[in-house]
Design goal:
Low-confidence stretches: none
Helix content: 25-40%
Mean pLDDT: 93
Number of domains: 2
CATH class of the largest domain: Alpha Beta
Number of strands: 14
Structural class: alpha/beta
Strand content: 15-25%
């Protein structure tokens, strides 16, 4: 198994600038971020990219065990319940004890992922500025400025709030089947949520389908654009582009292994109100509650895990 590895570059002439960290392979089967990061590393080392201000740190493989297995998880999902652990038990607990302090030493995070179903790349951002209990935040403007420059045309928000909706539903419908972690809204905390909780800001970029040959290129361009926008490189600030904005508002769990979709849904397929999405093993039909989109449909989900998300349009972006 590979050791934990990070590579940092700091400007010798202007070190007191922004501190960006870029992650790949938080999920071990999502290789595009690793490929993109290695490409940037080689260009910095060759002198093709010059670090003009601040610091940029790269973690090509955040989860070495999952990466070596070519699986999403090692012992569990690193992008759930991410926090330092006093008594680590699972491999991802050891990752968290190394990764969380590293994240805390930076200002901004770009986390590169890919997804299972076919679809176009998109980014996710955090909430609007707020002082609420779930995810207080004050850097929404910084996230929006960067996300408009990454090179993708779609942005999604509402993740942690929607995950909390799912947790509340689990509490009310089947608490006896689940352990305490699945009934805790903080189980939805991953890399970006943790980054915001320690005073930074963060964007997840879903670069494309797992095996899409263009996904590493999407990740590479996003890294270059992020460094330019933050002034870490002396390249011109990329032009901000208009984006289609969606907001997650509900998550539906798979209850039984035989719960089945009505069709081969792809992420961001449009939904019409009352359209049939799928049918439970007990015959219950699952219909769209309003016009919108289906997001992260997972026909292979196991019982008790997220089956699909629902999203609606938002004018925030």
């Amino acid at each position: 198994m590979q050791p934990f590895k990070s590579v940092s570059y700091t400007s010798p002439s202007n070190p007191a600038g922004p501190k960006l960290i870029v992650l790949g392979a938080v999920h071990g089967s999502e290789k595009c971020g690793t490929v993109a990061i290695h490409r940037v590393l080689s260009e910095i080392d060759s002198g093709a990219i010059e670090i003009a201000k601040g610091t940029v740190t790269f973690v090509p493989i955040a989860n070495p065990k999952a990466y070596a297995q070519n699986t999403r998880n090692g012992d569990r999902n690193l992008n759930r319940r991410l926090r330092p652990e006093v008594a680590p038990k699972e491999f991802e607990d050891h990752v968290a004890n190394w990764l969380c302090p590293l994240l805390q030493r930076h200002d901004a995070l770009l986390d590169l992922h890919s997804f299972q179903a076919q679809g176009q790349p998109f980014a996710t951002v955090g909430p609007v500025n707020n002082d609420g209990a779930l995810q207080p935040f004050k850097f929404a403007d910084e996230e929006l400025a960067l996300v408009r420059r990454l090179g993708v045309g779609r942005v999604v928000d509402g993740w942690l709030q929607t995950y909390a909706v799912g947790v509340e539903r689990r509490r009310n419908t089947r608490p006896a089947e689940l352990d305490r972690t699945e009934l805790d809204p903080q189980y939805g905390v991953g890399t970006t949520e943790y980054m915001r909780s320690v005073g930074g800001w963060a964007i997840t970029l879903e670069c494309g389908q797992h095996t899409d040959p263009n996904a590493p290129n999407v990740g590479y361009q996003a890294i270059r654009n992020a460094m330019a926008h933050l002034g870490i490189t002396a390249e011109p600030d990329p032009t901000a582009r208009p984006m289609e904005g969606l907001q997650l508002f509900d998550v539906i769990d798979k209850v039984h292994a035989d719960d089945a979709f009505a069709k081969d849904w792809q992420s961001f397929d449009p939904l019409k109100k009352n359209e049939l999405i799928g049918t439970r093993a007990n015959g219950e039909a699952m219909h769209a509650p309003e016009d919108g989109w289906i997001v992260f449909p997972n026909a292979a989900a196991t019982a008790g895990n997220e089956w699909f998300y629902l999203a609606k349009a938002t004018s925030r972006f």
